[in-house]
Amino acid sequence: DAGVTQSPTHLIKTRGQQVTLRCSPKSGHDTVSWYQQALGQGPQFIFQYYEEEERQRGNFPDRFSGHQFPNYSSELNVNALLLGDSALYLCASSLYRQGLGVEQYFGPGTRLTVT
Amino acid sequence: ELKVEQNPLFLSMQEGKNYTIYCNYSTTSDRLYWYRQDPGKSLESLFVLLSNGAVKQEGRLMASLDTKARLSTLHITAAVHDLSATYFCAVDSGDSGYALNFGKGTSLLVTP
Question: What is the mean pLDDT of residues B29-39?
Answer without folding.
Answer: 90
